[in-house]
Write a structure and sequence with these properties.
Blueprint lengths: L7 E4 L9 E6 L3 E6 L5 E5 H6 L1 E5 L5
Length: about 60
C-alpha cells in the first residue's frame, strides 16, 4: 500500500473523539498519525493500520 506523509486516511473505526480521519505525519515500519479533529498524535505499527484503512486521500490530489 502506497501511503506517504501528508495523506489523509479514513479509518473503519472512529477515534475516541468521534473522528475517523487521520493525517499521516510519518510512514515506514510504523505510522505516526494525527487525528483530524482533536490533533492527538500517536504511533501505530504498519500491519495493524493497513487492516483498518477504508480510504486514502493522497496529498497531491487536493
Amino acid at each position: 500500500m502506497d501511503i506517504r506523509a501528508g495523506d489523509i486516511l479514513t479509518m473503519k473505526k472512529n477515534h475516541p473523539c468521534g473522528s475517523n480521519e487521520m493525517l499521516v505525519l510519518r510512514s515506514g515500519m510504523d505510522f505516526r498519525l494525527k487525528c483530524a479533529k482533536c490533533s492527538r498524535e500517536f504511533m501505530v505499527p504498519r500491519n495493524k493500520i493497513e487492516k483498518s484503512i477504508r480510504n486514502v486521500r493522497h496529498a497531491d490530489e487536493g
